[in-house]
Design a protein that fits this description.
This protein is an alpha/beta fold. About 45% of the residues lie in helices and about 15% in strands. The strands form 2 sheets. It has an 8-stranded mixed sheet with strand order 3-2-1-4-7-6-8-5, sandwiched between helices. Helix 17 links the parallel strand 12 and strand 13. Helix 11 packs across helix 12 and helix 13 packs parallel to helix 19. The C terminus is likely disordered.
């Protein structure tokens, strides 16, 4: 596989393990005897800029192909999105910053991607978790070892960039390193893309963990709520997950709460009526509920202690945390229910956003005269075909003549009204009135108008196709995570055509590409 076919993205919060990963990665690339990736994008996800990231000096050997971008501490999903959107290659390979790649990893990666069957949207590497050879693994070590059989985890996961753009990347509502990878995989497969396991392998060492690590991990129960909202009740089976213990945790917590409530009633009755008063119902309720709580807690602790090293410190940790985990799990599940009560799967609405001048109508510089509007060849038929297929239509247009004082905003509205008279209804118009020097966020090639149009139509930018005649049109699409199709005209520069991912000779062919993709899903 030649240089330029893939980009490696490594999100990090500055752990020292980043240096080890990059060193082993560079050694593997050297051993593979290939040019390596087009770029290695290290995404600094620390909330604020601090000390420089621990990059090894060997990165200088890649001739500037290692770049660092910031994502502002918004979590691993947002960090990975920042990384892949900075890539321009066909494949994007995600690595965690605490894995170690083998000397043959780069060659195996190239083989995996080259051998990917048609229709493959992603390729997962294999993970090895080294466990101690001289004793049984601890509870935390066993949990980490579960990564070896996990599906679609981003410890080593490659996706086609087009698939990431189509799916909208990682869902940033998952604020932790948990479930965001499974969510993306399910959405990619729902869109008809095949995910495969490769032969390459990385090592995932067990990080040190504090006494309460297993209790803190229960925060993932809130993410499970979002998974259920997004993918239905069978999401665990589809993601290759077991049923988990939440139902038992709920029963344990409920029985414990009932026992405490019964004891409170018994105590209150005893205090108000004197020592001779009895409350047999409360007493027996407390005994029965307490017995259920004790039995479930003991079973849970035993299940965690039995396969472990059974050392005093580990046994103490298991006993204490087995009491704390069930109510923590329930608390986080309730938090997730409250937080994600309105969450629904992202709608998949088909949207095509057109540039206006020299795409839908002939370009008349700074035109404020509706009488000068003339449709481009094929524009009427192209828009009608899209409408027949239920595609929503929008226009995103730079109109710097307003900012220059050459035309007015009212002139633009009058011209747009004439466009609709000739071409039919446009569902949404987004116009940037600013001049280049204004530095706005909406003027193409910036993504502002694409993002706003998608939002107004109830779609994601990744569900949109942007069709235009110059480079800034498709660059705005890429910046927003949308698909871009270039339809060149006499003013399109050759370098813009060369850079474009998709080029169509005319509007009819561009619509063929849009509708052909929809039919293949």
């Amino acid at each position: 596989m030649s240089m330029g076919s893939y980009t490696i993205v490594v999100p990090t919060i500055g752990r020292p393990s980043l240096r080890t990963l990059l060193r082993t990665l560079l050694n593997s690339l050297a051993a593979a005897g290939t040019d390596g990736p087009a770029a290695i994008v290290v995404v600094d996800d620390r909330p604020a800029a601090g000390a420089p990231l621990p990059l090894p000096p060997e990165v200088n050997d890649l001739d500037g192909r290692v770049t660092v971008v910031r994502s502002g501490g918004r979590g691993p999903a947002a960090a990975r999105n920042t990384g892949w959107r900075a890539a321009t290659t066909d494949w994007v390979v995600f690595l965690d910053d605490d894995v170690v790649v083998s000397p043959g990893w780069a060659a195996e990666l190239a083989a995996d991607l080259a051998a990917a069957p048609a229709g493959t949207g992603g390729s997962q590497g294999r993970v090895t978790v080294p466990l101690p050879a001289d004793r049984r693994p601890t509870d935390w070590e066993r949990n980490t070892a579960g990564l070896e059989g996990a599906s679609w985890i981003t410890a080593d996961m490659a996706y086609r960039r087009a698939v990431l753009a189509e799916c909208g990347g990682f869902d940033e509502r998952f604020g932790r390193a948990y479930r965001e990878d499974a969510d993306l995989a399910l959405r990619a497969m729902d869109a008809g893309h095949r995910l495969v396991r490769g032969t390459r392998r990385v090592t995932h060492p067990v990080r040190s963990a504090g006494f309460w690590a297993s209790v803190r991990a229960q925060a993932g129960n809130a993410d499970d709520v979002l998974m259920g909202r997004m993918h239905g009740r069978d999401w665990r089976a589809r993601a290759g997950e077991g049923r988990g213990r939440f139902r038992r945790h709920l029963l344990t917590t409920g029985s414990g709460a009932l026992a405490l409530a019964a004891l409170a009633v018994r105590t209150r009755t005893h205090s108000s009526a004197g020592s001779s008063a009895r409350s047999p119902a409360a007493t027996w309720t407390a005994i029965a509920a307490g017995a259920v709580w004790a039995g479930l807690t003991a079973e849970f602790a035993a299940a965690r202690i039995r396969p472990g090293p059974r050392r005093p410190g580990e046994v103490t940790r298991m006993l204490v945390t087995s009491v704390a985990i069930p109510p923590a799990a329930v608390r986080h599940r309730v938090r997730g229910l409250a937080r994600h009560r309105k969450a629904k799967p992202w709608p998949r609405r088909r949207v095509v956003l057109f540039d206006r001048d020299d795409t839908l109508i002939h370009d008349v510089p700074y035109n404020g005269d509706p009488a000068s509007v003339e449709p481009m060849p094929g524009a009427v038929d192209a828009l009608e075909r899209l409408r027949r297929h239920g595609v929503r239509i929008g226009v995103v247009s730079n109109q710097s003549g307003v900012g220059k004082g050459l035309i007015t905003a009212r002139d633009v509205l009058r011209v747009n009204a004439r466009v609709e008279e000739l071409l039919g209804r446009i569902d949404v118009w987004e116009i940037c009135p600013h001049d280049h020097a204004d530095g706005c966020a909406c003027r193409k090639p910036r993504p502002g108008m694409v993002e706003r149009a998608a939002e107004r139509l109830g779609a994601r930018p990744s569900d949109c196709v942007v069709i235009g005649d110059i480079g800034r049109d498709v660059e705005a699409a890429a910046a927003a995570g949308a698909r871009g199709i270039l339809v060149p005209t006499s003013r399109t520069r050759l370098e813009e055509i060369a850079r474009a991912r998709e080029v169509a000779p005319d509007l009819d062919t561009a619509v063929d590409l849009v509708l052909g993709e929809e039919r293949s899903r």
